[in-house]
Amino acid sequence: MRRLVDTLKSYLSDDQIDQILRAYEFGASAHEGQTRKSGEPYITHPVAVAQELADMHLDAQAITAAILHDVVEDTSASLDDIEESFGLEVAQLVDAVSKLDQIQFRSRAEAQAESFRKMMLAMIEDIRVILVKLSDRLHNMQTLGAMPAAKKKRIARETLDIYAPIANRLGINSLKIKLEDLGFKHLYPLRYRVLERTLKKSKGTQRQIVKRISEEFSKAMTEEGINGEVIGREKHLYSIYRKMAEKRRPLSDIVDVYGFRIIVDDVNTCYQTLGLIHGLYKPMPGRFKDYIAIPRINGYQSLHTTLFGPKGLPLEVQIRTRQMDRVAEAGVASHWIYKADEKSDATPQRRAREWLSSLAEIQRSGTSEEFLESVKVDLFPDKIYVFTPKGDIMPLPKGATTVDFAYAVHTDIGDRCVAAKIDRALVPLRTPLQNGQTVEIVTARGAKPNPNWLTFVRSAKARTAIRNHMKNLRSAESIDIGKRLLDKSLKDQGSSLRKIGKVRMASALEELGLDNADELFEQLGLGKRLAPLTARILVGAGDEDAADDNVAGLVIAGTEGMVISYAKCCHPIPGDVVMGYLTAGRGVVIHRNTCGNLSNFRKQPEKWIAVTWEKDIEREFTSQIQTETRNRTGVLAEVAATIADCGSNIEQVEVLGRHDDCSVLTFSLSVKDRSHLAQIMRDVRKMPNVLRVSRDCA
């Protein structure tokens, strides 16, 4: 904690440091008695996360939230306690960070995708949330040694797939490198040890070469009157491993590449220094990149060049200003300004925020997995830069086509594009773009997106826009199908849509709780309502049947006027996910989705209809629970009394089996809904003579 306070004193006021110290005392008290897997007191983890953020010079609210980020989840303290002690802003940050880890999922793929989605949406609101989360992940990776091997590998893979790329996308290079190396170490421990051992052996020779060339650069700069600093860079293990894997080259080829960073005062001096070092060593053709004139998407700026060094050794040199160096290492956190009126002034932060804001458009459609697949493409920095006819620079993913460019300009341009020109020559729409090309899009009024474009577009925005168009297209088709189905059913009853008239249609729509006729047609086309039943409502038939059916006809939405019964094989109750099965004699029979008989009925999909429960149902339903109890005198009476205390009536009791020491009993009960049943099962489960309780379903 002393080191954290020393760091904070370098840039925060005494009042702000006092708030952070109060947060430490609050957190230490809340986490008292808790330990990490490694055996350390739990509070060491939030302090380590706060230290990482303090090294980035984040504001007091973010540091406070970092210290408290596990308090709500792991202790008895509440968000209200945090808000009362530290203010609304800190409470919101803690809540956002906590929520990323609280969601439960049906599958691992869904869990990863949904967590990822929540994280991204939290970032859109406040980038500090993801900075706390990244620092949290870093310390967890640093203390991963105490975890089981399988869990280590899963967490390491997640770190390399999601967290390190996010750090890279936000331009936080130092954090990205740490996450990558730790992820590599735990995912491929043997490969990591071999690389580490080999690099240690070659470090002595490397240091001598780096020192000699650094002195040579410094001497030449001094003679030219250039004030600057030369730093010999050590490559980190994961970048070496990735280069070996991608380029299929041996370790010796990769290790013998020497890196240098030259930091100068201003942009003009960057270009002057570039000319100077090109005079010392010959540059390799095609290996020069000017990220100062055209910055990377995450705000990174630098000149990159590769030289033929002594004995032909490749020398990788980066030249940048001090300001650019700060951005390169800390990204959006480099000039942390979190005031509403100044947000637009911080260029790297603005660039990152623009990207994050674009996610809001993507997340509005599709499942969590689709969202993950869409955004993952944009996470990685393999970008190309093309120009609009007016000379504006447009960054796109590597492999992007002219259609991606059209959607990047504007969604309407993408929707209406019919042809494209690259450097004033007409090309097919699927043509991949190259760096530096000028692209022009030809549009036509009334043109629509082609579903085949999904086979070649690369950007998330293009894919999302095309999918949205296809969904709208399907909606229009559903309306048309529903209209035809209803007209046919009306003709069977001696009427038609034309004969029904606007007044009767408006009355029926009000009765069904719908806004317009298109909504009704769409529901019919998608199978959410039955056309014969809707036809009966429109012509005024079936009212007597509905009245005879008392409240049952109103319990399931979409089945107004139809006889409803509830399957005795699975006993559905409000709150269950259900399906309706259309029978000849019993009307619509409602089954739970988990019912064992579904497999037999699935062979007749035309008889299934999608149904949902109405809200605020005022009646009781039959359900079943199965109990396994000890053979004791009076146990049946005890269970029956507990069920009665919960406000339920027992309709039937059946003994399914009796052994020397236990009995299996089935109770048929009347319950209001799923919550009522859950309460009964909880109370019965707590009884000393009850071994097991389950909901009985065939």
What does this structure look like?
Helix content is 52%, strand content 16%. It is of the alpha+beta class. Among the domains are: 2-190, Hypothetical protein af1432; 191-333, Beta Polymerase, domain 2 (2-Layer Sandwich), CATH 3.30.460.10; 459-539, no CATH class; 621-695, Alpha-Beta Plaits (2-Layer Sandwich). It has a 5-stranded mixed sheet with strand order 1-2-5-4-3. A 4-stranded mixed sheet has the order 12-14-13-15, with no helix packed on it.
Characteristics of this structure?
single chain, 698 residues, alpha+beta, Hypothetical protein af1432, four-stranded mixed sheet, 16% strand
Biggest beta sheet summary: 5 strands, mixed
Portion of residues in helices?
A: 40-55%
Taking the alpha carbons of the first and last residues, their distance comes to 59 Å
Radius of gyration: 33 Å
**What's the tally of helices?**
29
Order of strands, widest sheet: 1-2-5-4-3
CATH architecture descriptor text of the domain at 2-190: Orthogonal Bundle
Structural class: alpha+beta
Beta fraction of the residues?
A: 15-25%
Q: Which runs of at least 5 residues are low in confidence (pLDDT < 50)? A: 335-345, 541-554
- Indicate the CATH class of the domain at 2-190: Mainly Alpha
Average of per-residue pLDDT values: 81
> Might you state the CATH topology name of the domain at 2-190?
Hypothetical protein af1432
Spatial shape = globular
CATH superfamily of the domain at 2-190: Hypothetical protein af1432
Outline the fold blueprint.
Blueprint: H1 2-9, H2 14-30, H3 44-55, H4 60-68, H5 71-74, H6 79-86, H7 88-99, H8 108-125, H9 127-142, H10 149-169, H11 173-187, H12 189-223, E1 228-233, H13 237-247, H14 251-255, E2 258-264, H15 267-280, E3 289-290, E4 303-308, E5 314-321, H16 322-330, H17 347-363, H18 368-379, E6 383-387, E7 393-397, H19 402-409, H20 411-416, E8 417-422, E9 425-427, E10 439-443, H21 460-492, H22 497-512, H23 517-525, H24 531-539, H25 543-548, H26 552-555, E11 556-557, E12 564-566, E13 578-583, E14 587-592, H27 598-601, E15 608-610, E16 612-613, E17 621-630, H28 635-645, E18 649-658, E19 662-671, H29 674-685, E20 690-695
Parallel strand pairs: 2-5, 12-14
Antiparallel strand pairs: 1-2, 3-4, 4-5, 6-7, 8-9, 8-10, 11-16, 13-14, 13-15, 17-19, 17-20, 18-19
Helix pairs in contact: 1-3, 2-4, 3-4, 3-9, 4-7, 4-9, 6-7, 7-9, 8-9, 8-17, 8-18, 9-10, 9-11, 10-11, 11-12, 18-21, 21-23, 21-24
